[in-house]
Design a protein that fits this description.
Layout (H helix, E strand, L loop, with lengths): L1 H32 L5 E3 L1 H4 L38 H11 L4 E5 L5 H9 L5 E6 L16 H9 L17 E5 L14 E6 L5 H14 E9 L10 H10 L6 E3 L5 E4 L4
Parallel strand pairs: 1-7, 2-3, 2-5, 3-4, 5-6
Antiparallel strand pairs: 6-8, 7-8
Helix pairs in contact: 3-4
Length: 266
Protein backbone atom coordinates (compact mmCIF):
# COMPACT_ATOMS: atom_id res chain seq x y z
CA UNK A 1 0.00 0.00 0.00
CA UNK A 2 2.82 2.39 0.91
CA UNK A 3 4.56 1.65 -2.40
CA UNK A 4 1.33 2.37 -4.28
CA UNK A 5 0.99 5.77 -2.57
CA UNK A 6 4.61 6.66 -3.28
CA UNK A 7 4.31 5.67 -6.95
CA UNK A 8 1.03 7.59 -7.25
CA UNK A 9 2.58 10.73 -5.77
CA UNK A 10 5.57 10.47 -8.10
CA UNK A 11 3.23 10.08 -11.09
CA UNK A 12 1.09 13.04 -10.04
CA UNK A 13 4.19 15.21 -9.58
CA UNK A 14 5.46 14.17 -12.99
CA UNK A 15 2.14 15.02 -14.65
CA UNK A 16 1.98 18.42 -12.91
CA UNK A 17 5.58 19.15 -13.95
CA UNK A 18 4.86 18.14 -17.54
CA UNK A 19 1.71 20.27 -17.67
CA UNK A 20 3.58 23.45 -16.73
CA UNK A 21 6.78 22.67 -18.65
CA UNK A 22 5.37 20.85 -21.67
CA UNK A 23 6.47 23.46 -24.23
CA UNK A 24 10.07 23.40 -23.00
CA UNK A 25 10.03 19.59 -22.86
CA UNK A 26 8.73 19.34 -26.44
CA UNK A 27 11.32 21.86 -27.62
CA UNK A 28 14.12 19.94 -25.87
CA UNK A 29 13.24 16.64 -27.56
CA UNK A 30 12.64 18.34 -30.89
CA UNK A 31 16.12 19.86 -30.78
CA UNK A 32 17.57 16.56 -29.58
CA UNK A 33 16.18 14.35 -32.34
CA UNK A 34 15.38 16.69 -35.22
CA UNK A 35 17.59 19.12 -37.08
CA UNK A 36 15.76 22.28 -38.12
CA UNK A 37 15.64 23.02 -41.83
CA UNK A 38 16.32 26.70 -41.16
CA UNK A 39 19.71 27.77 -39.82
CA UNK A 40 19.54 29.69 -36.53
CA UNK A 41 21.77 32.74 -36.09
CA UNK A 42 22.71 35.08 -33.27
CA UNK A 43 21.09 38.50 -33.31
CA UNK A 44 24.36 40.33 -33.98
CA UNK A 45 24.64 38.28 -37.21
CA UNK A 46 21.39 39.79 -38.50
CA UNK A 47 22.67 43.37 -38.41
CA UNK A 48 25.75 45.12 -37.06
CA UNK A 49 23.60 47.45 -34.91
CA UNK A 50 23.12 44.55 -32.48
CA UNK A 51 26.84 44.02 -31.93
CA UNK A 52 28.27 45.39 -28.65
CA UNK A 53 29.36 49.01 -28.51
CA UNK A 54 32.99 49.19 -29.70
CA UNK A 55 33.66 52.15 -27.43
CA UNK A 56 33.28 49.98 -24.33
CA UNK A 57 35.27 46.82 -25.21
CA UNK A 58 35.47 45.72 -21.58
CA UNK A 59 31.66 45.47 -21.32
CA UNK A 60 29.06 44.39 -23.83
CA UNK A 61 26.95 47.54 -23.73
CA UNK A 62 24.32 48.14 -26.44
CA UNK A 63 24.66 50.78 -29.14
CA UNK A 64 22.42 53.82 -29.27
CA UNK A 65 20.83 52.45 -32.46
CA UNK A 66 19.04 49.76 -30.46
CA UNK A 67 17.48 52.09 -27.90
CA UNK A 68 13.79 52.23 -28.83
CA UNK A 69 10.42 53.54 -27.75
CA UNK A 70 8.41 50.71 -26.26
CA UNK A 71 5.38 49.89 -24.13
CA UNK A 72 3.98 46.87 -22.36
CA UNK A 73 0.44 45.53 -22.14
CA UNK A 74 -1.01 44.19 -18.91
CA UNK A 75 -1.84 40.49 -19.36
CA UNK A 76 -5.23 41.10 -17.75
CA UNK A 77 -6.18 43.16 -20.84
CA UNK A 78 -6.21 39.87 -22.82
CA UNK A 79 -5.08 41.38 -26.11
CA UNK A 80 -5.04 38.82 -28.93
CA UNK A 81 -1.87 37.86 -30.77
CA UNK A 82 1.30 39.80 -29.86
CA UNK A 83 4.99 39.19 -30.35
CA UNK A 84 7.22 38.63 -27.34
CA UNK A 85 8.86 41.72 -25.84
CA UNK A 86 12.22 40.57 -27.22
CA UNK A 87 10.79 40.14 -30.73
CA UNK A 88 9.03 43.51 -30.48
CA UNK A 89 12.34 45.17 -29.57
CA UNK A 90 14.10 43.59 -32.58
CA UNK A 91 11.37 44.75 -34.96
CA UNK A 92 11.41 48.23 -33.41
CA UNK A 93 15.15 48.49 -34.04
CA UNK A 94 14.65 47.71 -37.72
CA UNK A 95 11.81 50.23 -37.87
CA UNK A 96 14.34 52.93 -36.96
CA UNK A 97 16.14 52.10 -40.23
CA UNK A 98 13.02 51.99 -42.43
CA UNK A 99 11.16 54.68 -44.37
CA UNK A 100 8.49 52.35 -45.78
CA UNK A 101 7.08 49.48 -43.73
CA UNK A 102 4.40 46.95 -44.64
CA UNK A 103 2.72 44.69 -42.09
CA UNK A 104 0.54 41.70 -42.94
CA UNK A 105 -1.81 41.20 -39.98
CA UNK A 106 -2.67 44.23 -37.83
CA UNK A 107 -4.50 42.37 -35.05
CA UNK A 108 -4.67 44.84 -32.12
CA UNK A 109 -2.13 47.19 -33.74
CA UNK A 110 0.61 46.68 -31.14
CA UNK A 111 3.42 46.06 -33.65
CA UNK A 112 1.98 48.68 -35.99
CA UNK A 113 2.24 51.21 -33.18
CA UNK A 114 5.84 50.24 -32.44
CA UNK A 115 6.72 50.62 -36.12
CA UNK A 116 5.19 54.10 -36.19
CA UNK A 117 6.78 55.13 -32.88
CA UNK A 118 10.30 54.11 -33.90
CA UNK A 119 10.47 54.80 -37.63
CA UNK A 120 11.70 58.17 -39.00
CA UNK A 121 9.25 61.08 -38.81
CA UNK A 122 8.54 60.93 -42.55
CA UNK A 123 8.09 57.16 -42.64
CA UNK A 124 4.97 55.38 -43.91
CA UNK A 125 3.54 52.29 -42.22
CA UNK A 126 1.10 50.17 -44.20
CA UNK A 127 -0.85 47.53 -42.30
CA UNK A 128 -3.52 45.20 -43.63
CA UNK A 129 -6.24 43.35 -41.74
CA UNK A 130 -9.76 42.00 -42.10
CA UNK A 131 -12.83 43.81 -40.88
CA UNK A 132 -14.59 41.70 -38.23
CA UNK A 133 -17.66 41.49 -40.49
CA UNK A 134 -15.58 40.06 -43.35
CA UNK A 135 -14.20 36.97 -41.61
CA UNK A 136 -17.00 34.81 -42.96
CA UNK A 137 -15.73 35.53 -46.47
CA UNK A 138 -12.16 34.57 -45.62
CA UNK A 139 -10.50 32.63 -48.45
CA UNK A 140 -8.69 29.41 -47.60
CA UNK A 141 -7.96 26.03 -49.16
CA UNK A 142 -9.24 22.73 -47.82
CA UNK A 143 -5.60 21.70 -47.23
CA UNK A 144 -4.96 24.65 -44.88
CA UNK A 145 -4.49 23.84 -41.20
CA UNK A 146 -7.90 24.37 -39.62
CA UNK A 147 -6.58 25.73 -36.32
CA UNK A 148 -4.64 28.41 -38.24
CA UNK A 149 -7.83 29.47 -40.01
CA UNK A 150 -9.67 29.55 -36.68
CA UNK A 151 -6.94 31.73 -35.13
CA UNK A 152 -7.07 34.16 -38.06
CA UNK A 153 -10.79 34.59 -37.44
CA UNK A 154 -10.32 34.98 -33.67
CA UNK A 155 -7.64 37.65 -34.16
CA UNK A 156 -9.72 39.66 -36.66
CA UNK A 157 -12.00 41.05 -33.96
CA UNK A 158 -10.67 44.60 -33.94
CA UNK A 159 -12.21 47.63 -35.64
CA UNK A 160 -10.35 50.00 -33.29
CA UNK A 161 -6.62 49.77 -32.67
CA UNK A 162 -3.95 50.71 -30.15
CA UNK A 163 -2.64 53.50 -32.39
CA UNK A 164 -6.01 55.28 -32.62
CA UNK A 165 -5.87 58.84 -31.19
CA UNK A 166 -2.07 58.74 -30.97
CA UNK A 167 0.21 61.39 -32.44
CA UNK A 168 1.75 58.83 -34.82
CA UNK A 169 -1.63 57.88 -36.38
CA UNK A 170 -0.92 60.01 -39.47
CA UNK A 171 2.05 57.75 -40.35
CA UNK A 172 -0.19 54.68 -40.57
CA UNK A 173 -2.12 53.58 -43.66
CA UNK A 174 -4.70 51.08 -42.39
CA UNK A 175 -6.03 48.74 -45.09
CA UNK A 176 -9.18 46.67 -44.45
CA UNK A 177 -8.95 43.83 -46.96
CA UNK A 178 -8.27 40.13 -47.37
CA UNK A 179 -4.51 40.21 -47.95
CA UNK A 180 -4.73 37.47 -50.60
CA UNK A 181 -6.75 39.94 -52.72
CA UNK A 182 -4.51 42.94 -52.07
CA UNK A 183 -2.92 44.54 -55.15
CA UNK A 184 0.69 45.34 -54.28
CA UNK A 185 1.64 46.65 -57.75
CA UNK A 186 2.09 50.27 -56.56
CA UNK A 187 4.56 49.16 -53.89
CA UNK A 188 6.89 47.04 -56.01
CA UNK A 189 10.53 47.48 -54.90
CA UNK A 190 9.56 50.27 -52.47
CA UNK A 191 9.34 48.65 -49.02
CA UNK A 192 12.27 48.58 -46.57
CA UNK A 193 10.71 46.30 -43.97
CA UNK A 194 7.94 43.70 -44.33
CA UNK A 195 6.49 41.90 -41.33
CA UNK A 196 4.38 38.82 -42.11
CA UNK A 197 2.11 37.91 -39.21
CA UNK A 198 -1.34 37.60 -40.79
CA UNK A 199 -3.21 34.40 -41.51
CA UNK A 200 -1.11 31.35 -40.61
CA UNK A 201 -2.85 29.00 -43.03
CA UNK A 202 -0.64 27.90 -45.95
CA UNK A 203 -2.49 29.71 -48.74
CA UNK A 204 -2.35 33.02 -46.85
CA UNK A 205 1.31 32.70 -45.80
CA UNK A 206 2.25 31.85 -49.37
CA UNK A 207 0.27 34.74 -50.85
CA UNK A 208 1.56 37.29 -48.31
CA UNK A 209 5.15 36.12 -48.80
CA UNK A 210 4.99 36.26 -52.59
CA UNK A 211 3.69 39.83 -52.38
CA UNK A 212 6.43 40.66 -49.86
CA UNK A 213 9.15 39.40 -52.21
CA UNK A 214 7.82 41.70 -54.92
CA UNK A 215 7.47 44.73 -52.63
CA UNK A 216 10.81 44.53 -50.82
CA UNK A 217 13.51 46.87 -52.12
CA UNK A 218 17.20 46.08 -52.43
CA UNK A 219 18.80 45.60 -48.99
CA UNK A 220 15.32 45.50 -47.43
CA UNK A 221 14.31 42.79 -44.96
CA UNK A 222 11.31 40.48 -44.58
CA UNK A 223 10.35 38.98 -41.22
CA UNK A 224 8.00 36.07 -40.61
CA UNK A 225 6.54 35.55 -37.15
CA UNK A 226 5.68 32.21 -35.53
CA UNK A 227 8.19 29.80 -37.03
CA UNK A 228 7.44 27.28 -34.26
CA UNK A 229 7.86 23.66 -35.31
CA UNK A 230 5.97 22.12 -32.37
CA UNK A 231 2.92 24.39 -32.55
CA UNK A 232 0.00 23.07 -34.58
CA UNK A 233 -1.33 26.53 -35.51
CA UNK A 234 2.10 27.38 -36.99
CA UNK A 235 2.40 24.21 -39.05
CA UNK A 236 1.73 25.94 -42.37
CA UNK A 237 4.13 28.80 -41.57
CA UNK A 238 6.90 26.27 -40.95
CA UNK A 239 5.96 24.28 -44.05
CA UNK A 240 6.07 27.30 -46.36
CA UNK A 241 9.32 28.73 -44.99
CA UNK A 242 11.00 25.33 -45.22
CA UNK A 243 9.94 25.10 -48.87
CA UNK A 244 11.22 28.52 -49.93
CA UNK A 245 14.45 28.09 -47.99
CA UNK A 246 15.55 25.77 -50.80
CA UNK A 247 16.03 28.79 -53.08
CA UNK A 248 15.94 31.78 -50.70
CA UNK A 249 18.45 32.49 -47.92
CA UNK A 250 16.16 32.30 -44.89
CA UNK A 251 17.50 32.37 -41.33
CA UNK A 252 15.93 32.08 -37.88
CA UNK A 253 16.93 34.38 -35.03
CA UNK A 254 17.86 32.40 -31.92
CA UNK A 255 15.51 32.64 -28.91
CA UNK A 256 12.68 33.96 -31.10
CA UNK A 257 10.08 32.65 -33.53
CA UNK A 258 11.28 35.15 -36.16
CA UNK A 259 12.69 34.11 -39.52
CA UNK A 260 14.06 36.65 -41.95
CA UNK A 261 15.24 37.22 -45.51
CA UNK A 262 17.56 40.07 -46.58
CA UNK A 263 17.09 41.13 -50.17
CA UNK A 264 20.26 41.44 -52.21
CA UNK A 265 18.68 40.31 -55.48
CA UNK A 266 17.04 43.45 -56.96
Amino acid sequence: MDNFIIISLILINFLVFYFYKRKKIKTFFLNLFFKSTIKSVELYEVDKIFAPNENTPKFKFPKEEVIVKNFFIDKSFKIAGQTTDYEAWILSCFAKLSKNIFEFGTCSGKTTTLFALNSPSDAKVFTITLKPDDVNNLFYNTSDTKVAVRNAINESIYNNFIFENMSIRNKINLIFQDSTKFDESKLINLIDLVFIDGGHNYSCVKSDSEKAFRMIKKNGIIFWHDYVEIKKSCKDVVRYINEISKYKKIFKIKNTSLCYFKNSEN
